[in-house]
Design a protein that fits this description.
four-stranded antiparallel β-sheet, alpha+beta, SH3 type barrels, elongated, 30% strand
Length: 115
């Protein structure tokens, strides 16, 4: 009987735990834009791994080493945030976070730094 009572006490805690989200999961805006790009049919840069001995990009789920091929294109350049594919004369630049736009800093802090 006590075992049954103990189990019944745990049920409310388990029900509440189901509503928690994963804190390590990327924001929805990032995953939605990646999925939208993937559904558009073009390749999507998902990850970049750089080390002194190896440079690898994950493009649409496929690991491609620098100089290697993705489909008919060759991976010719790889940085922390982008990969460049060449297919004959066609050049495709894939960005890790295509929705992020870098802008030069402005305002008072930038003006003070110039002085």
């Amino acid at each position: 009987m006590r075992l049954l009572q103990g189990l019944l006490c745990l049920l409310p805690g388990l029900a509440m735990a189901q509503g928690l989200s994963d804190p390590t999961r990327p924001p929805a805006i990032l995953t939605e834009s990646s999925q939208a790009a993937a559904s558009g049919g073009g390749p999507v840069l998902q990850s970049v791994m750089l080390s002194p001995t190896r440079k690898v990009a994950v493009i649409s789920g496929e690991m491609v080493v620098l100089g290697g091929r993705y489909g008919g294109a060759r991976l010719v350049r790889l940085t922390e945030t982008e990969a460049v594919l060449h297919n004959g004369i066609e050049k495709t630049v894939l960005r890790l976070h295509p929705q992020v736009e870098k802008k030069p800093a402005g305002g008072k802090a930038a003006n003070m730094a110039k002085k």
